From TrEMBL:
Ranges of Basic and acidic residues composition bias in the record: 56-65
Alphabetized InterPro entries for the sequence: 2C_sensor_his_kinase (IPR050980), HAMP_dom (IPR003660), HATPase_C_sf (IPR036890), HATPase_dom (IPR003594), His_kinase_dom (IPR005467), HisK_dim/P_dom (IPR003661), HisK_dim/P_sf (IPR036097)
Low complexity bias spans: 68-81
Highest taxon above the source species: Bacteria
Keywords: ATP-binding, Cell membrane, Kinase, Membrane, Nucleotide-binding, Phosphoprotein, Transferase, Transmembrane, Transmembrane helix
GO MF annotation terms: kinase activity
Domain Histidine kinase: 217-410
Membrane-spanning intervals of the chain: 17-36, 135-154
Catalytic activity entry: ATP + protein L-histidine = ADP + protein N-phospho-L-histidine
One Pfam match: HAMP
Topology class, membrane: Multi-pass membrane protein
Classification of source organism: Bacteria, Bacillati, Actinomycetota, Actinomycetes, Kitasatosporales
Name the UniProt record assigns to this protein: histidine kinase
Organism of this sequence: Streptomyces thermocarboxydus
UniProt-annotated location(s): Cell membrane
Amino acid sequence: MPIVRALLNLRSLHWKIILLVSAACAAMALTVGVLVHESTLRRSMHEGAVKAVDQLDRARQEARRTGRPAPLADPAGLPDPLLRQVERHGQGTYYEDGPPAPVYWAAEQKDGQLYALRTDMTADLLTRQALDRHLWKYSLVTLAVVIPATALVMELPARRLRRVARTARRITAGDLQARTGMGRRGGDEITEIAATVDAMADSLRDRLAGEQRFTADVAHELRTPLMGLVTSAGLLPEGEATELVRDRVRVLRDLVEDLLEISRLDAGAERVEPRRVPLAELIEDSVARTGLPATVTATGAPVAETDPRRLDRIVTNLVVNAHRHGATPVEVDVSGLTITVRDHGPGFPPDLLAHGPQRFRTGAEQRGRGHGLGLTIAQGQAKVIGARLDFRNRPDDGGAVAEVRLPDGADDR
């Protein structure tokens, strides 16, 4: 399904936004966690130092009042950083992180005596560790809530974007009636894109309709005087000049007939009249009617349910195009429901392979002369009968290859 494929596409905008939100939440949680941890640690160290100094003072005062031994200390049992502070300032504090337990030292040099006392900081350490665990736990809980919520919130705009993309693909495929149907509600960027795509489709439809009307009008307007010209050419006395005039009149007549056929194809006025036909015999007759040499090879005796007149038009145009723009020998192969026409010329130009045949363009000078409507008509007739027409060049020895694949439903053997 398209939606499932879109969700599985890890490079989609949907997943990029989820990843960005997740990274932002993780970075925020980490920053807050580090700040809270450092702030709590500094406050704990400050309070521990104050508490250790206070306990040392009270122990000395208690010793003077009660006559108990004062908290004298052996310098050998004190941490070196604490001794350096006492030597420098006469007093000092130092945090020692175990083992066996974390303690805060307080020491003071007075009257030639060194007093020292340590305060147990285990409870403080456990409190800070519990705070760190809670920070990590609730950060993960927040991510577990934010990420699915972001995915759900992003699904609506992602669905709208996929709808715009599907509409654009339909327009590209030739469906000029396709529209996003979003209107102008919402006023966000997606709505603006959808409105632009709809406006583009309207403009493209109107321009193509205008071109089609122009082509049809020109062909119809030319047909009447052309018939008079054909009749007049037939009344001319025989001679070299007459043959030249008649040849040019035939070319002009063929061009007008091609234009009329294209206008009918563009307007969708063509209707299929399918019937059962022996495919190999039909192709042989079509090639014979061109009057051009071509080798027809058939595999088996396939019978197809298709419109023989339109299929004849396709094959005729392909064979004529192969002789006009390619080189002999021209080979026609019938295999099942596939008809392949191949020449041994320079091959199709890259522009035709990339974008398909375009009217009034032959693609390259080496492809010969012509008005470039034959392949356009063949492609249009193939679309009418539901066939697929592909163009390619042979990679080994060159030559253009046109392949007509009739739909599977046409097989009636």
